[in-house]
Amino acid sequence: MGLTDTFVKQVKQVKPAGDKYTDGQGMYLLVNSAGKYWRFDYRFLGKRKTLALGVYPAVSLAKARTRRQEARELLADGIDPGAAKRDAKNSKLIAAQHTFEAVARLWLDKTKSERASTTQEKVQNWLANNLFPAIGSLPISTIKPRDVLVAVQRIEARGANESAHRVKSLCGQVFRFAVAIGLAERDVTADLKGALASVQTNHFAAITEPHEVAKLLKAIHGYSGHAYAAAALKLAPLVFVRPGELRSAEWVEIDLDAAEWRIPGHKMKMRNDHIVPLAKQAVDILRDVHGMTGHGKYVFPSIRSGDRCMSENTINAALRGLGFGKDVMTGHGFRAMARTILDEVLEERVDYIEHQLAHTVKDANGRAYNRTAHLPARRMMMQRWADYLDALRAAA
């Protein structure tokens, strides 16, 4: 006959070594001076073993019987319930050590070579300011979509929709990394599709009419600000790279004799190495700059410290100083300027232009061209572009 709740509650130790009261099917109650303990005796692979089911009253008679049944089911499946219990405990310990913050910092370190130092700092700040306070201390394997949603909705509530989407995307990258190293089952951010308000796409302001470009170029060449900023401003329309690529340019990447700038993939948006053929005018500007900054790492160092590159606001601030508001022209706008005029005015081949903009261009078989594709033709196109800009400025 099995035990009853009343008996379990009232029974006291009788023998000095403790007493055992069986409930059947291998389970019994061990009563000693320290307390009342549920135990389950079983045999696995010919060996007698005992499984602890809990301590009364925290574990009631009914709960102990449920645990006994679960152990019997494991045995029926050929699994040692004692080993299963240890594995579950170890998994919980591992999960507790691998919090979202710990995994995110590991991911940041493992992938830092893929990002520019300034981008790495931004990503660290986004995580530290927006995700770590909310879910940083949670074991990453236990985080649910709702946990992430609450964190990013706080950003959205501030009116920073674009930042909310960016932080959600970063969170997804951390989860996919956790999946890859066996610390999470899936990327829970996949369940948040459509949960945030969509971001309205804002195109960077750009001047694309040749007669207006002429005025802009004339103003740029008359800029009387800091020498580094003046040189970067003159070079920007000649190379039409992204602003971050321009300001973080390093002398080790540039071969003035070969008139070539090779930007490593970790600095590029598409993560592929990129070659920028330098027109004669671009080489002349860079030779002048070399006399000022050639002893250091960066072509355009920060005015405050040579150990850092130029601020991301320098070019736009210079344009504002010249009278071109952010709704008229931006540092990024030089790309749209080149894309439009090279195509519509100079009638250059669109695939050459796209290559030079570092956009992905595929061949007839759907394969992406490599960085050296059409390089001689692009070199000539870049010289024609520089000559065209000189002619515009001269006629202004």
UniProtKB/TrEMBL annotation:
Presence of keyword Transmembrane helix: no
UniProt cross-references to PROSITE patterns, sorted A to Z: CB, TYR_RECOMBINASE
Keyword line: DNA integration, DNA recombination, DNA-binding
Domain Tyr recombinase: 202-386
Residue span, Core-binding (CB) domain: 98-179
Keyword flag Plastid: no
Coiled coil: none
An example Gene Ontology biological process: DNA integration
One Gene Ontology molecular-function label: DNA binding
Span of the signal peptide: none
UniProt family annotation: Belongs to the 'phage' integrase family.
The protein's name: Integrase arm-type DNA-binding domain-containing protein
